[in-house]
Amino acid sequence: MPATTVLPDRDDFTRRLTAVDDEPHRVDELYPKVVARAGTRMTGPGFVMALQLAFAEYTKEMPPVIAYALGKELGTYVRAVIDDPAARREALDTLGELASPT
User: Which of 66, 70, 51 is nearest to 13 (CA)?
Assistant: First the structure.
């Protein structure tokens, strides 16, 4: 059974994301999409899917190279947000699987 974690509350969630990158456009446009999940219980892979959906929506009008570069940062966001070690490991494993599908 996958490990679950309760995501931080809105203020803490925003603080953690901003600690990763406080670029104003991300803070205003991307982070609210992610923080909408604040306080919910999720599996690590579920958080990865939510994060990827938010990134996809955020980058849909951007050049592919920017979307790619931002996608490379997903692991940093996972480490910043998920406190539970098992859920974090499962999330990072999911990112690895998505990056190198078989």
Answer: 51
